[in-house]
Amino acid sequence: AINIVDKFNEVGNKFAISSGGIGDALQRSAASFAAANNTIDESIALVVAANNVIQDPDTVGTMWKTVTMRIRGAKTELEEAGLETEYMAESTASLRDAIKGLTNVDGLGGFDIMKDEKTFKSTYDIILGIGEVWEKMSDIDQAALLELVAGKRQGNALAATLTNLEDLKAALEASENSAGSAMKEQEVWLGSLEAKINQFKASFESLSSTIISDDLVGAIIDFGTTFVHTIDNI
């Protein structure tokens, strides 16, 4: 659990998304990310890269759920989730060939979404691979790829990620090297005045719960109030 807290905290500190925002996006997409061979670090990086442009974690989470399912050809799951299935490839082989053709900008055969005949690359690696040739693709080919992989409704959100590889890579590095982030921040906070006041309140509440007489508690509070007021006047 603390490992996940570290990742959320470190990435939230370095990018335009809160820990809560990362959680909201992953709540919608984590299962699909895992099924699509992504590590939690890769999943967080994909969320950050899209959200830095879209600025809506819920939309980002839905987009990635759609994309990962469409790449895997999970049409039934998409339909059950009420997500778009229009323009999906009929099979893994046809999707693989279509993406190779659309990304073949250097005459080397285009980008392959598969590790081998039976294994997809992670969504992170697929987006990174397509993103590296994205600017060289024609507008028509870009539009066709977005429609094929994300559908009409989620295309703009996917395009935001494909043009933001710098944040994609940086967020992955931040997440992978986040160990101790949350505890370090907690230690800084514990040294703050706010934390010391909260600690004092908690200690006094504990003391109050052990004192039977409400009159005695009231007397202590009245004395403290008078004392502080006197010091303030001085």
List descriptors.
two-stranded antiparallel sheet; 2 strands
Rounded Rg: 26 Å
Overall mean pLDDT score?
Answer: 89
Oligomer: single chain
List low-confidence stretches.
none
Query: Judging from the principal axes of the Cα atoms, what is the shape?
Result: elongated
| Helix/strand order | HHHHHHEEHHHHHH
Proportion of residues in helical segments: over 70%
Number of strands: 2
Give the DSSP E fraction (strand runs of 2 or more residues). under 5%
Largest sheet: 2 strands, antiparallel
- The N- and C-terminal alpha carbons lie at a distance of 49 Å
Count the helices. How many?
A: 12
Major beta sheet, strand line-up? 1-2
Structural class: mainly alpha
Which helices and strands occur, and which strands form pairs?
Layout: H1 2-14, H2 19-35, H3 40-54, H4 57-72, H5 75-80, H6 92-102, E1 114-116, E2 119-120, H7 123-134, H8 139-162, H9 165-176, H10 181-190, H11 193-210, H12 214-233
Antiparallel strand pairs: 1-2
Helix pairs in contact: 1-2, 1-9, 2-3, 2-4, 3-4, 3-8, 3-9, 4-8, 6-8
Describe this structure in words.
By secondary structure, the protein is an all-alpha fold. The chain is 74% helix and 2% strand. The chain has twelve helices and two strands. It has helices spanning 2-14, 19-35, 40-54, 57-72, 75-80, 92-102, 123-134, 139-162, 165-176, 181-190, 193-210, 214-233; strands at 114-116, 119-120. The protein has a two-stranded antiparallel sheet with strand order 1-2. The longest helix has 24 residues, at 139-162. The protein is elongated, with a radius of gyration of 26 Å.
